Amino acid sequence: MSVASRVEGGLSLVPGGEPARVENGGDPVRTGDKPGGDERAAALPFPDAPTLSELFAASPRDAGWAGFLALQLAAGPLLWVQERMAILEGGRVHPAGLGHHAAGLIHVEARDARAALWAMEEGLRCQALSAVVGELWGDPAALDFTATRRLAVAAERHGVAAFLIRLGGHANLSGARQRWRIASAPSAVHPLDGKAPGTPRWDAELFRARGRAPGRWVAGDDGQAHLLPVVAEPPGGALGKGDRRFG
Amino acid sequence: MVLTVEAQHGQLIHAATQAALERGARVGGRLTDARALDPALEAVAADIAGDSAWLRALARWAGRWSPLVEVDGTDGLRLDVAGVAHLFGGEERLLADLAARVAALGFSSRAAIAPTAGAAWALARFGRGALVVGERQVAAALAPLPVAALRLDARATHTLVRLGLKQVGDLAGVPRKGLARRFREADHPLDALDRALGRKAEPLTAAPEDPPPRALLPMKEPVVHPEAGTQALTLLVPRLVAELERRKLGVRELLLLGYRVDGSVAEARAATSIPTREPGHLARLLADKAAALDPEFGFDAFALQAAWWERLDAAQEALVGEPSGEAELARLVDRLSVKLGPDKVRRPAPRESHLPERANGWVAAVASQGSRPSTTAFGLRSGRADNSPVVGDGRPNRLLDRPEAIAVIYATPEGLPRRFVWRRRVHDIARAQGPERIAPEWWRERSTARLRDYYKVEDTDGCRFWIFRQGLVGDGRGGAPDWFVHGLFG
């Protein structure tokens, strides 16, 4: 992956997307409690209000999207719907790896895509939830434009963020407001151990969005609490002093 | 004349008149045996259900003597007369009054008053002589009675008789330990004796009548319309809710019963995660299943009944119209569980274990009562603040249900992995971190269980995996170590 430049303490973008933006003097801004707060919107073009986003995994064995998604999730009860095939192919949600999201997690194992979509729509009607995540395998017949449109409308009407995860699927017609293609990118350098994987990086491509230009970024977590600037860092580079200590 | 019940090998004598007893009939014996002794014996089928209904009616009626009346087995009543005897002029007079009034109803009866329920039971059934016994005379009064008077089950009584302990008095000198080996704890004869003598507590447990909340809808004529279930539900829910409100109860499990004309019963069931009596929610839970009830030859009645209920006082959920989060979540869990099955909708319930798949426990969300897991399993999270980022933590955020075997090239015996093949695709490992050694739980597993060395690896594309090597070379627990992929990092 080609990398444009590195801005000290701030953020930068890889070519092919939007022009690089630098936050005010590289000083990170705290997020609000709401998902998609002001600072995040500045970093990556996440939606301002809860809506339906569609995330395509680069391959079923690449769980990079899960880390990318975790940064968008607000604190609070979470409904996670997994189709049976998605569990078999991509593994089950592991609460111990979800951190504080595990506390309010309700996990649903759906028999097929139809049941999964039904469970997601039921969840979106419940305003006590902070978000609904649904994982579907392949291109099920039940997942047509109408189904995604229903999810998007329900998410916007009730103010619950919805994330539709597509494992091994193709980008057919969809009513999702944002459609991402997420792949893992080589991780940042580990500050202590040159052989070990560091903080994760993702190759995030926004290929359709309402009211925004599509783009492609290398995104990462800068290690500050709930911050998501966009970074681009050469893999195997020098140990960055802003890098988070692992652990 | 005898009353008989149907048993496996013909009719047994359930009860016999005095005359029949004198002519050789024996309660519990076979009718054919008794007929052999006395061919003129008249036999009538016993009405067990009718007897028990009568006994319950009698128990209510016996409330005239004592507020605490309990049906005792199939043929007795227990009255707690402590402190009430003086109202009838003493215990003897009370007993006489009781005998006279019961006789006036047409029953023959035996009654006894003793300081303990066990002693009174024994004296009423087996006692001779004085039927009112004070605390001092209990032991003496019980001593000559047969051991059957201890209210043990038939096998325990039989064992006692075979041991030569035929009377209650014989038990007095027997060491407790000697008997303990021959009897289950529940029917230890010395415990029974202690209860009868008042050395152990045996309280009367006359539970107040607490029938399940229930609403019934009889039909004028059988209905076969497929919509019948749904319509019955809409009529029954408000009635049930009215009863629940009156009794301040909330439903945890709801049962819709459709009684068919041929005597069979169709049922639909729904559970809730917190007690509720909200009509809209209850109707919605059962709506689908009610519509699917098969009428076959027709329903002639419907009943909506709480199978599990809890106390629920009136509560205001919120000041304005919007419902509170907890209740709304519970309703969502109920709806999902009813449709998808309670075992498919779950919350994490971490267990104390180092093995990832064991620590990663789940519990049905309906059963968990909306409780949050209070503690995470130890060793799973480093001591970072709660608001720190989630990603990159020590555990993957995807875990395969079963670890999948992979072929790995690694520096033997304990070096870092270099390359692995998972699901027929080669991953070249660019970076690896580990090992994190997790020893088998020797107190739970077999002695041949092997330790695991977990590695967090990243391939050249950046995909991160959690793989482990099971065992060591030369650990004496099998051949070459196997490798597995267990989780995926996000």
Low-confidence stretches of chain A: 1-42, 231-247
Shape of chain B: extended
Proportion of residues in β-strands of chain B: 25-35%
User: Radius of gyration of chain A, Cα only, in angstroms?
Assistant: 18 Å
Main beta-sheet strand count, sense and barrel state of chain A? 8 strands, mixed
Oligomer: heterodimer
Measured by DSSP, the beta-strand proportion of chain A falls in: 15-25%
Shape of chain A: globular
Q: Overall pLDDT of chain B, averaged?
A: 82
SSE order of chain A: HEHEHEEHEHEEEE
Based on helices, strands and strand pairing, what is the structural class of chain A? Answer: alpha/beta
pLDDT averaged residue by residue of chain A: 77
The SSE string of chain B, one letter per element, is: EEHHEHEEHHHHHHEHEEHEHEHEEEEEEE
Q: Flag low-confidence runs of chain B.
A: 370-392
Cα distance, first to last residue of chain B?
83 Å
Describe the structure in your own words.
The complex is a heterodimer of chains A (247) and B (490). Chain A is 19% helix and 23% strand. By secondary structure, chain A is of the alpha/beta class. In chain A, strands 4-2-5-6-1-7-8-9 form an eight-stranded mixed β-sheet, sandwiched between helices. In chain A, strand 8 (201-209) and strand 9 form a beta hairpin. In chain A, helix 4 packs parallel to helix 5. Chain A is globular and about 50 Å long. The two termini of chain A are 27 Å apart. Chain B has 490 residues and is α+β, with helices and mostly antiparallel strands. Chain B has 13 helices and 17 strands. A six-stranded antiparallel beta barrel of chain B has the order 12-13-14-15-16-17. In chain B, strands 6-9-7-8 form a four-stranded antiparallel β-sheet. In chain B, helix 5 packs across helix 9. Mean pLDDT of chain B is 82; it is low at 370-392. At the A-B interface, helix 2, helix 3, strand 3, strand 4 and helix 4 of A face helix 12, strand 10, strand 12, strand 14 and strand 15 of B. Strand 3 (92-93) of chain A pairs antiparallel with strand 12 of chain B.
